[in-house]
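Board notes (copied after class):
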Amino acid sequence: MEIWTASILERKLIKMTILLRRKPEMSHDEFVTYHRKNHAPLFLSLEEVKQHVRRYVQCHATGEQLPGLPDNHIDGSTELWFDDLTGLAGVFQSPNYMATIRPDEEKFLDLHACEFLVGVENEVIPALHA
């Protein structure tokens, strides 16, 4: 079944959401600091990122447990927007990414415990404008 119809892809940016889990030996605060101050600037330094990434958002867990919901073991998320799947591949399959970013990810992420979603957004409530 083809889920990427031409009409959907023509209207929407491709969004990649990564649910992040830190290395077990790292505290949550160490993870957040590293993600913000080390990893983000390194990622932004790649030419492929400058060329293809349209938006980049980090979100870090507050540690709050909500009544009625299961325990959350996610430390944060990364959201990246691209014009198309070719742009996404242009970043994540580039030799620069593999040589520079992948080794950095291994410093603070439990990569095998992270989860990845590539999709298109369906905005239900539009962002508020000031």
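Comment from the instructor: The helical segments are 6-11, 28-44, 47-52, 85-92, 95-108. The chain is about 40% helix and 20% strand.
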